[in-house]
């Protein structure tokens, strides 16, 4: 209830006088008022360690896959903290990268568009094993946050072979549309030698993304890739798979995942044929069931129910149809 210009200095003075109260006071303000309660302290303090602690309290919990040190408090994700986080990232005076970037991660986790400049910069860093997961995470965030200019940046990185192709292709999924399909399609048929050498290729991810962006040529390409070929060596048990068929298996799985994203009922006949193939790989059949779930209109739901009731079908096949029905959005 007190103006920040008056409250800030008084709170700073209190914390200096009684250091033991600092943690409890920050927690009380954070939990009762949120970022506006901590901002007066941030603005009136010259202690960058205290400022760091404050933005740690207001940032959002990190996304899956990003580790959080045990000594860092779990933040509340208050979107009103954007100004604090941005100021910290732009003005942190010390040469401690991990601390400076705490301001950037705070902006990113809050979904603040001001994270764009920092994320774009990190995404284009030269390969460094110590920074690999950070660079990868930045590329993913660029796509997930749908930042302005993200599509152009990601396509340029893909063209120049900068960064991990699978991550870049995956990041294009949320920001892409039909117009970029032709630029992604070549990555669906690159040679296996390129995949093994770590080259600019990732067929499985490319197939999945083409479905996600609903490329006009996706249905034909994904269907042809997902369909079982005469020369495909398949196993009805996962532990009996032929290692030399792994690439083909991954391509088919990627294509089926792409069909799930596409959600086109026109793929239903192929999906049901794949699902009912008792000689095919069980993971392929399960992915076909999942794709069928996302492709099924009301008419197809009636067909699926009929299949479940069909006593001429084996029990395992009927289970896959039940799975498709249960997964339908």
- Count of DSSP-assigned helices: 19
Mean pLDDT: 88
Q: How many angstroms separate the termini?
A: 47 Å
Order of helices and strands: HHHHHHHHHHHHHHHHHHH
- Name the structural class: mainly alpha
Helix content: 55-70%
Strand fraction: under 5%
| Cα Rg | 26 Å
Number of strands: 0
Shape: elongated
Mind describing the biggest β-sheet?
Answer: none
Task: Describe the 3D structure.
This protein has 329 residues and is mainly alpha-helical. The protein is 62% helix and 0% strand. The longest helix has 17 residues, at 246-262. The relative contact order is 0.05. The model is unreliable at 1-5 (pLDDT under 50).
Précis, in short:
With 329 residues, the protein is an all-alpha fold.
Features:
mainly alpha; 19 helices; disordered N terminus
Give the topology.
Blueprint: H1 4-17, H2 22-32, H3 35-44, H4 48-58, H5 82-91, H6 97-109, H7 116-123, H8 132-144, H9 150-160, H10 165-175, H11 181-184, H12 192-196, H13 203-212, H14 218-226, H15 246-262, H16 268-276, H17 282-295, H18 298-309, H19 315-327
Helix pairs in contact: 1-3, 2-3, 3-4, 4-6, 5-6, 7-8, 8-10, 9-10, 10-13, 13-15, 14-15, 15-17, 16-17, 17-19, 18-19
């Amino acid at each position: 209830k007190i103006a920040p210009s008056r409250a800030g200095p008084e709170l700073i003075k209190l914390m200096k006088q009684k250091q033991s109260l600092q943690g409890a006071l920050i927690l009380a303000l954070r939990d009762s008022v949120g970022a506006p309660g901590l901002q007066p302290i941030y603005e009136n303090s010259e202690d960058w360690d205290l400022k760091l602690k404050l933005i740690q309290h207001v940032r959002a919990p990190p996304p899956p896959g990003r580790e959080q040190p045990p000594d860092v408090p779990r933040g509340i994700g208050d979107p009103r903290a954007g100004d604090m986080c941005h100021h910290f990232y732009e003005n942190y005076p010390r040469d401690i990268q991990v601390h400076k970037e705490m301001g950037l991660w705070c902006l990113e986790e809050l979904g603040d568009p001001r994270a764009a400049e920092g994320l774009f910069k990190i995404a284009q860093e030269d390969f460094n094993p110590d920074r690999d997961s950070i660079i990868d995470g930045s590329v993913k965030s660029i796509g997930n946050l749908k930042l302005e200019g993200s599509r152009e940046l990601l396509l340029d990185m893909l063209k120049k072979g900068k960064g991990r192709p699978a991550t870049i292709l995956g990041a294009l999924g949320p920001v892409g549309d039909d117009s970029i399909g032709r630029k992604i399609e070549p990555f669906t048929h690159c040679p296996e030698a390129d995949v093994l050498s770590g080259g600019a290729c990732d067929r499985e991810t490319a197939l999945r993304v083409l479905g996600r962006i609903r490329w006009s040529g996706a249905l034909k390409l994904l269907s042809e890739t997902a369909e079982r070929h005469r020369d495909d060596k398949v196993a009805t048990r996962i532990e009996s798979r032929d290692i030399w068929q792994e690439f083909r298996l991954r391509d088919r799985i990627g294509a089926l995942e792409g069909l799930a994203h596409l959600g086109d009922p026109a793929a239903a006949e192929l999906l049901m044929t794949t699902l009912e193939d008792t000689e095919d790989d069980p993971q392929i059949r399960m992915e076909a069931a999942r794709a069928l779930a996302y492709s099924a209109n009301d008419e197809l739901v009636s067909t699926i129910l009929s299949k479940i009731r069909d006593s001429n079908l084996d029990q395992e096949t009927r289970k896959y149809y039940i799975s498709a029905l249960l997964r339908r959005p």
